[in-house]
Amino acid sequence: ELLASTSVMLINVGRFVQDFLLLAMQEFDGIRLSDGYVQTSSIMPQKRNPVALEHVRILASKALGQATGVFISAHNTPFGDINDVEDDLQPLIANTLRDATRSLSLFAAALSTATFNTGTLRRRASEGFITVTELADILVRRDKLSFRTAHQIVAKCVQLAHERQVDLSYDLLQTVSREIINRSVNLTPDEVTKALDPENFVKVRGILGGPAPAETRRAVTLEREHEQDDEQWHETRQSDLENYPQRLRTAVRLFIPTVA
Q1: 2 and 74 Cβ atoms separated by less than 8 Å
Q2: Rounded to two decimals, what is the model's pTM?
């Protein structure tokens, strides 16, 4: 169970770190690691290679591989056999936990001193028609269209805007709507602008697990509470283990008073 939980965490670490590696590239310019977590190129002095994130990725992959080795080794071992799961597997288990801890600790340290280029990220969130799903959604909610029809209208708008190298506008939406459903849609210019706004796009997605700020804060608060519960559980169990030898000796003396 411990390795299963660790493996799920390592898979998510690998996915997260891959995103951050892309964001750290100059072409994306979404995040800048501090100098202590980058390394220059041996031939290109302008480069800032995000080596810390690369180490996070390989350590997570290594730990996941070791955990998988334990699973494969144990999958056909009978419950009555205790030898197969002792000496040969214990080093793999220990190394999995060690490398998982190293990966997560390095990841946290690198991000704690990183700078996020929020201006660049905000600007790019407004590009590439990223938010047009909300325009289709609002056509369903406000104009009572099927999502299939709303999707068709918005897709055609995107196609024309791309071909003409223009923004997706209220006028373009109405033109396409008249072509597809033979009438204009019941949206105002302000509603179209709001639907395409990146901040609104995130804010309205407040379902359980959604990215809306309010939902994110709720989820983080809940996980912090779970973390505190887990830490308390760990402290209690650790104390029990440390006190166990004395408790055992005390219990034995009740039956054998001569035991030291």
Answers
A1: no
A2: 0.79
* Total number of domains in the chain: 3
Phi and psi at residue 116, to the nearest 5°: -95, 125
Q: Cβ(230)–Cβ(239) under 8 Å?
A: no
Residues 233-244: tens digit of each pLDDT: 999 999 999 999
In this structure, the answer to whether residues 116 and 8 fall within a common structural domain is yes
| Domain final residue pick, 203, 219, 249 | 203
Q: Is 173 exposed, middle or buried (0-12, 13-18, 19+ CB in 10 A)?
A: buried
User: Mean pLDDT across the chain, nearest whole number?
Assistant: 92
Rounded to 10 deg, the angle between the 132-143 and 147-164 helix axes is 140
DSSP letters for 71-96: HHHHTT--TT--STTSTTTHHHHHHH
Question: For residue 161, what is the domain's CATH number?
Answer: 1.10.40
Q: What range defines the domain where residue 146 resides?
A: 126-203
Cα–Cα separations (whole angstroms), residue 181 to 145, 163, 184, 185, 213: 10, 22, 8, 9, 36
- Check residue 84 and give its pLDDT: 67
Burial (CB count within 10 angstroms: exposed 0-12, middle 13-18, buried 19+), residue 28: middle
Give per-residue pLDDT as tens, 59-96.
999 999 999 999 988 888 777 776 666 777 888 999 99
Q: Look at residues 165, 129, 132, 130 and name the one whose alpha carbon lies nearest to residue 150.
A: 132
Kindly report, residue by residue over 211-221, the tens digit of the pLDDT.
Answer: 999 999 999 99
Q: Which of 75, 105, 120 is the last residue of a domain?
A: 120
In the structure, what pLDDT confidence band is assigned to residue 260 with cuts at 50, 70 and 90?
A: low
